[in-house]
Amino acid sequence: MIDRLSNWGTVGLALAIFLSLLTMAAAGQDGGATQKATPQPKKLTYAIAIHGGAGSNPKRFSDAANKRRRNSLEKALRIGTEILKSGGTSLEAVEQVVLFLEDDPQFNAGKGAVFNAASSHELDASIMDGKTLECGAVAGVWTVKNPISLARMVMTETPHVLLAGSGAEAFATKMNVPRVKTSYFDTQSTLEAWKRVRAKMGDNGKLGEPNQILEIATGSYLGTVGCVALDQTGNLAAATSTGGMTNKQFGRVGDSPIVGAGTFADNRSCAVSCTGIGEQFIRNAVAFNVSAQMRFRGSTLDQSVQNVLQNELKPGDGGIIAVGHDGSISMRFNTSGMSRAAADSSGRFEVLWGNPSDSNKLP
Amino acid sequence: MIDRLSNWGTVGLALAIFLSLLTMAAAGQDGGATQKATPQPKKLTYAIAIHGGAGSNPKRFSDAANKRRRNSLEKALRIGTEILKSGGTSLEAVEQVVLFLEDDPQFNAGKGAVFNAASSHELDASIMDGKTLECGAVAGVWTVKNPISLARMVMTETPHVLLAGSGAEAFATKMNVPRVKTSYFDTQSTLEAWKRVRAKMGDNGKLGEPNQILEIATGSYLGTVGCVALDQTGNLAAATSTGGMTNKQFGRVGDSPIVGAGTFADNRSCAVSCTGIGEQFIRNAVAFNVSAQMRFRGSTLDQSVQNVLQNELKPGDGGIIAVGHDGSISMRFNTSGMSRAAADSSGRFEVLWGNPSDSNKLP
């Protein structure tokens, strides 16, 4: 009888051990490693992350150019942080941050959008509300000063998610948003980048790998912009805006206006914004992929972002920023750099660019 | 000492029990249930599934209309099956099946595409190769007789994935594909459906729920078409083509041309084609979602399709067809019906429509 009891005592011990193993498994295989990688603040009431595009290494550019770019990202971060700190919604924060960067010619979104193969501009943007999964996007607009705001109107003023081309322009007229001549988007640096690319790939020429576009364009910023945020009510939102890829074929739509590819937000998991070779991000449904790894595999936010960059995408494809429902932030990339910024209610406030290893060395 | 050993024996038993529990968890919660739902053939060398759109119940239509529709799906299934049986690729099979259905005015794709709010037609299509994740898509074309073939050319002849609107039309000219006047797509039944919808929602009116469009349009077929296939070399492919949603806003892009939403194929998991409320399928990245549940959660194909229809989408949103890398087929929907067909190397060859419960009662 006493032996029986002692047996059951030992079994109980085995039970406890395996239940704890099960719990760890549910928390994601590499949970431990991730904790080390990004120590989580205890209780964050808001958090925000911004990217100004994955691409070239800051060392390629003048200190003056890097400083101007850094200052803009810091201003954008301040705009978003103020909205969240004062109780604004994450949806408002991501729209206002992206709108500010669209108006800055240093980034490939709004003013400063790259040239397409028709020596014109076609702009894409999308926005998503993680509370309702409502979302809106526009693709291939050419006279809309701020595509991100039109994308938000697609979400709120139509039963649709994505409007493209002439239909999106017609909707802009109906919504009476600020319009510009297409030439408004021109800048000297995007024109030079376009000439470099055309010298190598010509007019709509077939490329073996889209990545070649990225390599050829190196020397210009690849400045798609995006923002993800968690607000004080616990709601997540994401927004992305871009001019696309230099010398892209007329009518080409990349990942930025595709919910699930370039942008995604779901209060059950995270908010995500991507930058890089749009085609690769569509093929791998990257923004949703990060959320799916959290929900279906139990990976942490940072582990999910790393999994996608290392196992789903190819080196040089681009970068991802994401904020979790707990306010944790992940900003990673497999290019030589990604201009980015992050802030949260713990007082974190930083603008970064290079590899995570030397990410604290600001340009 | 002997007591010690008996202790360890009992611990070993506990070990075995919990390890088997872990294995069951890894195999997907309802693995057992799924096996019951769809018994898997032992070794399939090829498999194919087709949908002709989720939507109205066959009881709403004349026997003659239902019979015509059934015969077309049977012809399409024969076309795809012959290609696969004779060693053709899954990519060729899905393109040829969808092309055949695009030319059939009974379906909302190619000839027979619905009217948009501008009383015109804008067609969307996409195709994906599960071996390479290469894919191509076109959105909002209006003079291209077979959008699915142009989508395949985007995949093979450009570095891009998606071309929209005027850019896609310009690409069609460059590729010299068969063109038609937009009025070629007109049919009497789609014109009547459009008038019914406009009588209720007017011109581009905001709807509370996109589902209302589906309900208002009830009485007409909602015949987006799609095909998924596994070929004898073990490669998966998927293709989808549609005219979109009746009275959709000019420029509206649904899920059919969005890789990850309406179409997805990955040899590691499955090939998927969707039909229904495109906006809902984009919000939930439905086609990739099915693949992600298999890869990240370990669910079976049929369980993944059920999970998405029951837990991610809303009743009435639409339907999904999918084929797994093992040749298993899942065809499910949360509407009153979905015209569909399936065949495989075991000799299965069937055309279905109503609810799975009475799915063997052919119209």
| Helix fraction bin of chain A | 25-40%
Please provide the ordered H/E string of secondary-structure elements of chain A. Answer: HHEHHEEHEHHHEEEEEHHHEEEE
Question: For the largest beta sheet of chain A, what order do the strands appear in spatially?
Answer: 4-3-2-6-5-1-12-13
Biggest interface between protein chains, with counts per chain?
A-B, 65 and 65 residues
Cα shape of chain A: globular
Give a quick account of the main beta sheet of chain A: strands, pairing sense, barrel closure.
8 strands, mixed
Measured by DSSP, the beta-strand proportion of chain A falls in 15-25%
Give the rounded overall mean pLDDT of chain A. 85
The span between the termini of chain A is: 73 Å
Which spans of chain A have pLDDT < 50 for at least 5 consecutive residues? 1-6, 20-35, 207-212, 214-221, 358-363
Total of helices of chain A: 11
Number of strands of chain A: 13
Say what oligomer this is: homodimer
Structural class by secondary-structure content of chain A: alpha+beta
What is the radius of gyration of chain A? Answer: 22 Å
